[in-house]
Design a protein that fits this description.
The protein is an alpha/beta fold and about 300 residues long. It is about 40% helix and about 20% strand.
Amino acid sequence: MVASSKPRRSNVPSEALRALESAARLHSFKAAANELNITPAAVSQRIKSLEDYLGTILFVRLNRSIRLTEAGQALAAALRDGFTIIDRAVGVAYGDSAPPSTVTISVLPSFAIKCLVPHLGRFYARHPSIRLRIEASDERVDLSRERRFDLAIRYGQGPYRGLSAEPLDTSRQMVPVCKPTKNSTPAPDAPLSWLLLHTDRPQHDVRLEPSDWRGWFRRAGWAEPARSFAGPAFSNAHLAIAAAIGGQGVALTPEVLVRDDLAEGHLVRASQVSIFDPFRFWVLCVKERANRNAVKAFRRWLVAEFEDNCE
């Protein structure tokens, strides 16, 4: 009998699998190296050895970034689930009779920075035993395939088929905001001199074009100041908001993202005119996970937090 030339599965190098899972999750060899306490070169070498072992490419190496291949995505997703089970089992064996309830959330960076993170203390005051793991990204997430996520918070129109979806913000208003002036009241002719700050539409690859500002100007009854539409564009709403706070111009943004900044005086409404936002924030969950106690607790808190802030 001729022996198979294909290596035995039991010989798969475990350190290479850890390197792959970490680099895939963090989107960086450098970040994976920091997490694993090795060098980026060692991470690259381990992944290369795994590719040689499997006979397939797992990462496409670009100039300043990496991208998973289809095979790499499938393997990384399976490894995340596997390592989670192993880590929990080891924790139990070590003496943790009840591993902590963990809720893993995929959230848009702007929402995380402006709405979620500043209020987490109120969640932990009510649920000190629940551990949240928050991953911020503008990339789309398929919750049915990305099993490591229990919830996702996204900005869109809906509906979301196959998912349990709850809307978070009820105001659905886009408001123009800027840095406070000495009297905090813009001059009557201010819109004609504003430098307008533009923002990409998260997750939809649709840029917030000047037409959104044109809609605002039509609603306000002003002629369109063509020069102002040449203002800078940002990939995330929180960058445009930061620019507005820094006095760089006027941002047209979902009202929910600037509630705290308006309340604390970091921003003021450049005008009381607002326009309807066809998008809104949603908390999404695979239906089979919706009844987990920790998931239900976080969803209830998040929805209630928005309801309280909208009153």
